[in-house]
């Protein structure tokens, strides 16, 4: 009886016995033919991403940032403020809100200085806006430089807003707290004015209502004199400074005769030295006398 060699051959091993279906991939299976790759599809999908690709992306971004800063320094040295500010804008678009955080303070100052040297108010405003948008907070020396250049270019309003932004706390809660503190200090100053008025009355002060030109009764004239600006300023200084601190007040108008007499007595009852500079001269009030000898 003849037996075919095909029928006499032993059966092939089961697929489950293959080492490819265990929990790891042999090196030969990874580099093998298409037949080996088909059985390990699940393991290949669950493999972690390659670290080399991430490192390459980070390295590329750092290189782009270095090239951008080199180009920014070159544009500031020319100076070409418009191109420098355009580059800042491109960096902000590519990198998002914090793209300019890597700029050193001297690089920020170079951009601002280039705008000032070119006397370009538009470029200065754009640079200020971009830095404010990208940085968590502009350094105080940079803000002072921006405000100074605003003043030189005739934009005093922008300078004031830049400095106000530097000194104002962030957030609505902080702003409300500051407003509440200012209002409390204002009320305290007005209360101090009324208190001083009673003290100097006891020391012999008599209101000179000739300096009130409104057609009102005598009591209203006395109250109007009590709230003159120099007295409010002195009261604010008294409640805001330690005892014995000299006070200095600058007034753009001439001090009236009644306030001159009142401030002499205020200096006496409070024991303070008070210096008032009006549009004519300095008045040094101390111990109930004035340096002008009442020539005022």
UniProtKB/TrEMBL annotation:
Residue segments, region Disordered: 161-187
Residue ranges annotated for the DYW domain, each copy included: 204-296
UniProt-listed InterPro entries: DYW_dom (IPR032867)
MF-aspect GO terms: zinc ion binding
Pfam families: DYW_deaminase
Composition skew (Basic and acidic residues), residue ranges: 170-187
Protein name: DYW domain-containing protein
């Amino acid at each position: 009886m003849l037996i075919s060699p095909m029928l006499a051959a032993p059966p092939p091993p089961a697929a489950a016995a293959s080492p490819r279906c265990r929990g790891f991939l042999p090196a030969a299976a990874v580099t093998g033919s298409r037949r080996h790759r088909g059985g390990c599809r699940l393991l290949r999908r669950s493999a972690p991403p390659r670290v080399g690709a991430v490192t390459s992306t980070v390295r590329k971004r750092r290189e782009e940032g270095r090239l951008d800063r080199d180009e920014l320094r070159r544009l500031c040295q020319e100076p070409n403020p418009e191109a420098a500010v355009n580059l800042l804008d491109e960096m902000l678009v590519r990198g998002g809100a914090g793209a300019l955080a890597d700029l050193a303070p001297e690089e920020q100052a170079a951009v601002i200085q280039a705008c000032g040297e070119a006397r370009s108010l538009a470029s200065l405003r754009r640079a200020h806006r971009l830095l404010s948008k990208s940085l968590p907070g502009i350094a105080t020396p940079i803000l002072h430089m921006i405000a100074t250049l605003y003043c030189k270019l005739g934009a005093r309003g922008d300078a004031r807003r830049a400095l106000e932004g530097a000194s104002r706390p962030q957030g609505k809660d902080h702003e409300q707290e500051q407003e509440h503190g200012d209002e409390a200090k204002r009320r305290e100053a007005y209360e101090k004015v009324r208190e001083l008025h009673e003290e100097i009355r006891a020391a012999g002060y008599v209101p000179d209502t000739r300096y009130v030109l409104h057609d009102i009764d005598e009591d209203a004239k006395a109250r109007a004199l009590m709230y003159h600006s120099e007295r409010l300023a002195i009261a604010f200084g008294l409640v805001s400074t330690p005892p014995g601190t000299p006070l200095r007040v600058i007034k753009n108008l001439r001090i009236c005769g009644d306030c001159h007499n009142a401030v002499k007595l205020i200096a006496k009852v409070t024991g303070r030295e008070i210096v008032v500079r009006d549009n004519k001269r300095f008045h040094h009030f101390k111990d109930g006398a004035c340096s002008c000898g009442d020539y005022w």
